[in-house]
Every structure is written in C-alpha cells, then in structure tokens.
Write a structure and sequence with these properties.
Structural class: mainly beta
Helix content: 10-25%
Largest sheet: 7 strands, antiparallel
Oligomer: single chain
CATH topology of the largest domain: Elongation Factor Tu (Ef-tu), domain 3
CATH class of the largest domain: Mainly Beta
CATH architecture of the largest domain: Beta Barrel
Strand content: 35-45%
Distance between the termini: 27 Å
Number of strands: 13
C-alpha cells in the first residue's frame, strides 16, 4: 500500500531481458540513492505507480523483475535511459497518510492531451480510458504516474488536474508532454463500492 506521495525521482538506468519465450521476463534498473540506502531485498517500491519488488541492490541502484504483462499494462516499457521515474516505498504502519490509498496496481494507461503552465501552476489534461469514467468524480482522487492528485475538472472524455510548483519539483510530472503515456490508478474505494453493488 502507498499514499501517492513521491519520495524520490529516480533515474532509469536500463532494462534487459532475462529469459526468452514462451514467458519472457526483464530486469529493470533504477538509480534512487535516497530509497536504495534504506531498502532491503523484497521491499515493495512504487515506480510510476506500479508496485514492484526489489530483487537486487547495488549501491544506489535497485533492480526489479518485470513480466511481459507489466510492460504491456504500464508505461514502464516506454522508459529510456535517463528517464525520470517516480519512486515511493511502501507505507509503514506508523506513517501519516498524506495522499490517498494507492495500491500500486495500475488500472490503465492513458495519453496526455495537454500539459502547459498557467502562471506558476501546471495544468494536465488526460484522456479517460474507455470503461473507467465511472471511477472519477470532481474533487476526487486519482493516481497519475503514482502521484496522488485531485480531479479539478471532469469532462466527457478527459479530466484535468492542476500541479503546484512543489509537486512539479518532486515528481516527473513536469516532464510530461502531449501524447505521453501515463499510468493511472483509480480510487480504491470507488472500485470496492462498485463491486459490492454488483455482488448484491
């Protein structure tokens, strides 16, 4: 479980194949010295909102196994050498919950429609993937690349979030441009409520 409050912006070092078909897997390497120095093997880390387990630590570098399914369902396969990655360690029981409950299970990817400044604030408009509009409400929570944000404006096929300067400095959201693919995780409570209604 995570909160959507990014602890460190890591740097993508590389990705390499570790096995071949029929079940290919890959090793993703991220440089994140602040988290790596206190992390342990097996710890869960959110990378751009995707929960992965550390399989190797070497100095400031952490390695993670990726399956083909993870590459297909997230934007981690889009990363290039030097790409910035939002990193957050799993929530400790004695931690304050400053964002919202984020599982690290990416529901869908979506394209950035526009990304631009209005004075000092950064405006992101993001497409709503088909079938997911029901999980969004005005002033509700959504995780974008693992960052807990508030829906400022809800449209038929898109939603808008505003990013304050501090969030821009502490995440990779400021690097986004129109057409970029981002990871989305919708509100956990909304999904549970929907499920209970279906079961009833």
């Amino acid at each position: 479980m995570f909160t959507g409050l990014v602890e460190e912006v890591g740097v993508h070092v590389g990705i390499q194949s570790t096995s071949s078909s029929p079940s290919p897997s890959f090793l993703l390497s991220i440089e994140a010295p602040k988290i790596a120095v206190v992390a342990q093997l097996g710890d869960s880390i959110s990378l751009n909102g995707c929960c992965l387990s550390i399989v190797k630590i070497a100095g400031s570098r952490m390695d993670f196994h990726l399956l083909q399914e993870t590459l297909r369902c997230t934007n981690l396969g889009d990363l290039r050498s030097g790409s910035l990655v939002n990193c957050e360690a799993a929530l400790a029981l004695n931690s304050r919950l400053g964002g919202h409950f984020v599982q690290g299970h990416v529901d869908a990817t979506a394209s950035v429609i526009s990304a631009d400044f209005s004075e000092n604030d950064f405006r992101l408009e993001i497409e709503i993937p088909p079938g997911f509009a029901r999980y969004l409400i005005s002033k509700g929570s959504v995780a974008v690349n693992g960052v807990s944000l508030t829906v400022a404006q809800l449209r038929e096929r898109s939603f808008v979030v505003w990013i304050i300067p501090q969030t821009l400095e502490q995440t990779n959201l400021g690097t986004l441009r129109s057409g970029d693919r981002i990871n989305l995780e919708f509100d956990l409570l909304a999904k549970y409520i929907e499920r209970m209604r279906i079961v009833d």
